[in-house]
Design brief:
Elements (H helix, E strand, L loop, with lengths): L1 H9 L10 E6 L1 E4 L8 E8 L7 E9 L12 E6 L5 E7 L10 E10 L2 E3 L5 E5 L24 E5 L11 H10 L3 E8 L5 E3 L20 H5 L48 H7 L4 E6 L9 H11 L6 E4 L3 H10 L4 E2 L3 H10 L14 E4 L23 H9 L3 E4 L5 H10 L3 E4 L2 H8 L10
Parallel strand pairs: 1-8, 2-9, 10-11, 10-18, 11-13, 13-14, 14-15, 16-17, 17-18
Antiparallel strand pairs: 1-3, 3-6, 4-5, 4-7, 7-9, 11-12
Helix pairs in contact: 5-6
Amino acid sequence: MALLTVAACSDSDPRPAVSASNLSVISTALPEGAPGEMPSLMFRAVLDVPQPRDVSINYSTKAESATPGDDYLDTAGEAVIRAGELEAFISVDLLGDAEEESAETFTLELSVLGNANLVDVTPTGTIANDDTVCDTPYSYTENPWRVFGADPLNYAHRGGVIDFPENTLFAYGEVAVVGADVLEMDVYQTADNELVVLHDLTVDRTTNGTGRVVDLTLAELKALDAAYWFVPGEGTPHDRPDDAYVFRGIATGDAPPPPGYSREDFQIPTLEEALQRFPHNLINVELKPDLDGVGDYEGQMASLLQRYGRASDVIAASFVDEAAMNFKAVAPCVHTSVPLDQGSALVLGSLGDGVIPPVPEHVAFQVPPDTSQITGSGQLPDDFFLEVVTEDFVADAHAANLAVQVWTINTCEDMLRMMAFGVDAIMTDRPVLLEELLNTPADQRSCE
């Protein structure tokens, strides 16, 4: 009788059913390396919630523009996310060379065994070209950042300050899906000379931490919740009920991430992580002051962009003329915008019948619609006011073959007004709203 009882129990599992996890294998990029090198491109496979049993991922590489045997090693195998854990890695070896070439791609074909559902079934590996020497100033006949009468580019300012938790990989991923054309990000240097994506001098406004970025190490910054104070549709108010902060706790593992993302996507990212995640998106990086002056900030930025083959599809911008000149000296091939002091002189000189002379070392003006956005910053007298973006200014800039990229435009009315002036890009904290306008036929756009 005892034997029958044992047999009967073995036919069923007494453990309660567990909801399936979302499984994401995240696309990524890596420089190819020098001849003879074989760097490993690592795909991260991530569950949103842990499982009581192993989840196995069978994978194999599939060629796209990259050639197996020349650019990477064809690879097949199994990666296992162990019970109770959240991630595993899939490694593909790249084959370095010295050829100057465009970035090349391959994909992974995947199948899963275990209690998990794949979110993205074809993650892409991008092999970045790191062989082009960045020692020659760029030249162009037709400025690639001008739209020549078409709709302006949708610049997601910090990834969309009002729409998503700013300067996070989650925000940039979401605005890329929405259709934003350019991912705008600010870059500071940490106490241990790492480059991180963050707008403020301190972490206080956006995270659950406190202190200046320059005084904190990368490890200390990575321990913070970069979405801690974000409220959808509002930005980062610090006085809302706890349940308004809908992304709070994802970065620290106290809440599950949305499908397709991991908790790391809600931490402060490094610039390299952004370049790895978004190799095919236009990017605007704003250079911040090198506050300690010991980390070769501009040179480090230039080297990183070069390693990932980013020059003509990136704009390096700065309000600090010294930082802009230092960067230009070490990365003349990277597109740049006109810095503040030089730009102010050009704007004032173009008033009335004035013209803007050729500025071949830059590709764009990045300007506010008027000086009210910078009054009180110490850059201008408090009683000074000037309308910067006008039809005349746009015409003068275009005559000098410079794009006009205007910031920060957050209302429908102002977006339509900038479009009427013929600007080339609108930087906005509300890229979702701007994309809705851009997806509406021009003669039907309205703010009603």
